[in-house]
Design goal:
Elements: E1 2-9, E2 13-20, E3 25-32, E4 44-45, H1 47-68, E5 74-82, E6 87-90, E7 100-101, H2 109-119, H3 121-128, H4 137-147, H5 149-152, E8 157-160, H6 161-170, E9 174-176, H7 177-180, E10 186-187, E11 192-193, H8 195-200, E12 210-212, E13 217-220, H9 223-229, E14 236-242, H10 243-250, E15 258-263, E16 267-273, E17 285-288, E18 295-301, H11 305-315, H12 317-326, H13 330-338, E19 349-351, E20 369-371, H14 379-403, E21 410-414, H15 421-431, E22 435-438, H16 443-455, H17 462-469, E23 472-476, H18 480-493, H19 496-510
Parallel strand pairs: 1-5, 5-14, 9-12, 15-21, 21-22
Antiparallel strand pairs: 1-2, 2-3, 4-7, 6-8, 10-11, 13-14, 15-16, 16-18, 17-18, 19-20, 22-23
């Protein structure tokens, strides 16, 4: 059986997925690893953990495929995806110099200001289509130079998460334009490195890998990597894309009028665009799409599913125990309890800024908050408030798209939170647009496998591949009556950040 392998280097684990040439998932497997937080606002991981997890998940995926199918599995190509912005520093012989600094790391606020002061906000937007944000790669390079000069002096190259796995697979240094868009070093409109920005920031140009379109072949599996993975050597490795762009491919968001909403550890609202568009105020990300020659806009909630996971881990041990007895996911128990409470959680609101925030506030100091707690409220109210707060934050992103005259006729929803039909309907009601759920909800890994199929000629284009490989399983039409309720809740939610902004800043200053 001919298959395409997608590998997704996520924040909590690495997933391997085998996609049959004729369609359908053959097998998948995930291996997890820890998130390191050595200081407040820091988030790091060991790149070796990613590689070992890739080995483990690929081997397990192949084993499961062999068990399930009476056929020889032939991997035709590998597509890569993963967490964007997470930066690996390597010396001249390819040795990792320090733990990778992740997308959700907030240590670089001062470096972001330095970049804007050095380049100029308008020039930065003109050249990179984005403003400087703590999660991006460029400020991390400056942070390393200023805070760990002994490591900076030994550095010879930088790679993003999926691109480090590419290096371990093929021995090649390469990236793709969608992932490179989040470095703040790419000319997004021209789809090439922004030489003037790199020079202005005094970053060695030689540190940056070659940049490709997402369907380009960037190398081939080496003998050494093949032995570790249980694969033949010489398999093509396709460029792939950042997790949001690859996830959009996996959900068929590859044409005008299409958008997606991802409910993962972070949350994202993603719009496809045939032309290069950017927000002149820098509130939305403007990146290259994984579809060659196309672009996308994106707003990000840093702690979407991450907020619900915090709630589960901190307050829901009884629900975890009950789920174990029933053999179900603890989130199913928590969400069922949450939706036993009426919309609005009887006046309880939640700000999901547990990791700072990116869109629309761009504030590393922002923090989570329950507002309106009373003796009336119980854990179910709090659970619903968390879910509604995440949804309202996604609506913040959606409203910015409207300001740029982006009005999608349909939103594809994916990610762990999208497994709940109740939450999907809440999002349809809140955004006031048709929400669809695809038959295969494997997002980035599925999209990476599709990109591998296109890159090696199984399909003529990403669009053609999505027409054949992506199928809608459920449609949620917005309920106008519920929409009015959520509109009123949003009216209460929206001004809260502005009210608390100075408090957040003072609190952060007091913790320095």
């Amino acid at each position: 059986m001919k298959c395409f392998l997608g590998i997704d280097i996520g924040t909590t684990g690495t997933k391997a997925l085998l996609l049959a040439e004729t369609g359908g998932i053959v097998a998948q497997a995930t291996s997890t690893y820890p998130l390191l937080t050595p200081k407040a606002n820091w988030a790091e991981q060991n790149p070796e953990d990613w590689w070992q997890a890739a080995i483990s998940s690929v081997r397990e995926c192949l084993t499961r495929a062999d068990r399930s199918f009476d056929a020889n599995i032939e991997v035709q190509a590998i597509g890569l995806t993963g967490q964007m912005h997470s930066t690996v520093f390597l010396n001249s012989d390819g040795t990792v110099l320090r733990p990778a600094i992740l997308w959700c790391d907030q240590r670089t606020a001062s470096q972001c200001r330095e970049i804007i002061d050095t380049v100029g906000f308008d020039q930065l937007i003109l050249r990179t289509s984005n403003t400087a944000l703590p999660g991006f790669t460029a400020p991390k390079i400056l942070w390393l130079r200023e805070n760990e000069p002994e490591i900076y002096d030994r550095d010879a190259s930088i790679l993003l998460a999926k691109d480090y796995i590419r290096y371990r697979l093929s021995g090649n240094f390469a990236t793709d334009v969608s992932d490179a868009s989040g470095t703040l070093l790419l000319d997004v409109a021209e789809r090439r490195w922004a030489e003037s920005i790199i020079e202005a920031l005094n970053i060695p140009r030689t540190w940056l890998p070659d940049c490709f379109e997402s369907t380009d072949i960037t190398g081939y599996v080496t003998t050494e990597a093949a032995g570790k993975l249980g694969l033949p050597e010489g398999i093509p490795v396709v460029a792939g894309g950042g997790d949001q762009a690859a996830g959009a491919v996996g959900n068929g968001v590859v044409h005008t009028g299409s958008a997606s909403c991802v409910l993962g550890t972070s949350g994202a609202v993603f719009w496809h665009s045939d032309a290069h568009i950017h927000d002149e105020h820098g509130r939305l990300h403007a990146f290259c799409h994984a579809v060659p020659g196309k672009w996308h806009l994106m707003g990000v909630t840093l702690a979407a599913g991450g907020s619900l996971r915090w709630f589960r881990d901190t307050l829901c041990q009884p629900e975890i125990d009950e789920a174990a007895k029933q053999g179900i996911d603890p989130y199913d128990v928590i969400i069922e309890q949450a939706f036993s409470v009426p919309p609005g959680s009887e006046g309880l609101l939640f700000l999901p800024y547990l990791a700072g925030e990116r869109t629309p506030h761009t504030d590393a100091n922002a923090r989570g908050a329950f507002i309106g707690l009373s003796l009336r409220h119980n854990k179910a109210h709090m659970a619903r408030a968390v879910i509604e707060g995440i949804t309202m934050s996604l609506k913040d992103c959606f409203e910015l798209g409207k300001e740029l005259s982006i009005n999608p006729n349909q939103v594809q929803i994916s990610g762990g939170g999208a497994r709940s039909s109740l939450w999907r309907q809440m999002i349809a009601d809140t955004l006031g647009v048709e929400v669809v759920h695809t038959q295969v909800d494997e997002g980035p890994a599925y999209g990476a496998a599709i990109l591998a199929a296109v890159g090696t000629g199984r399909f003529r284009s990403v669009e053609e591949a999505c027409r054949e490989m992506v199928t809608i399983s459920e449609i949620h039409q917005p309920n106008p009556l519920n929409g009015e309720i959520y509109h009123n809740i949003y009216g209460l939610y929206k001004p809260l950040y502005g009210t608390l902004k100075e408090h957040f800043a003072r609190s952060a200053s007091g913790n320095d």
